[in-house]
Amino acid sequence: MRVSVDLARCDRNGLCVMAAPEVFQLDSGGLRFIEEPDEELRPDVEDAVASCPAGAIALLDITTPPASASGHA
Ligand code: SF4
């Protein structure tokens, strides 16, 4: 999964940090987050998405193609 945050909408209230502290962090530079967190953190990230009053967090499903998927002949 991939996490995206619209930092222009983020008001730094820290609710996502409380929901998913392993993914989101607030410091003097603002909000920081892991763009591709472990799948096991999905429930926490979903809680963060739901808790964000600004609607700034997006959770995107990404699929990683298998290493043997090269189609060049
Ligand atoms: S919950 Fe939303 S508005 Fe609050 S710090 Fe996180 S991304 Fe920003």
From TrEMBL:
Gene3D superfamilies: 3.30.70.20. SUPFAM superfamilies: 4Fe-4S ferredoxins (SSF54862). It comes from the Bacteria. Its cofactor is [3Fe-4S] cluster. Keywords: 3Fe-4S, Electron transport, Iron, Iron-sulfur, Metal-binding, Transport. Pfam families: Fer4_15. PANTHER family: FERREDOXIN. Ferredoxins are iron-sulfur proteins that transfer electrons in a wide variety of metabolic reactions. This is Ferredoxin. It comes from Nocardioides deserti. The lineage of its organism: Bacteria, Bacillati, Actinomycetota, Actinomycetes, Propionibacteriales.
